[in-house]
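Throughout our pipeline, every protein is held as a single compact record rather than as scattered files. The record that follows is passed on verbatim for readers who wish to inspect the format:
___
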Amino acid sequence: MTAQLMRSIGERLRLWKSEIAARPLLLIEWCGASLGVLGAEVLAQKSAYSAYGWVIWLVSNVLWIVFALKKRAFGLLAMQLVFTVTSLQGAVNWLL
């Protein structure tokens, strides 16, 4: 193998590794967003299951907090911490 081919393989492996490392964060972001929308929809239905919208939002909040910490997005982190408190209040009020 030539040195150029070895460099090319090494570069591809580095790109592949960085892509794999980025995917969990992408998955966390999309799961957080999807669960946030699902929680809103469940709550908006005003059915016997509406109270579980708050629980879904809690899971979404946790995912967004992890995402914000990893990305060092402190504005998003502050907002999600407040939303977590309101989600806890909603869950307690609706489920207990």
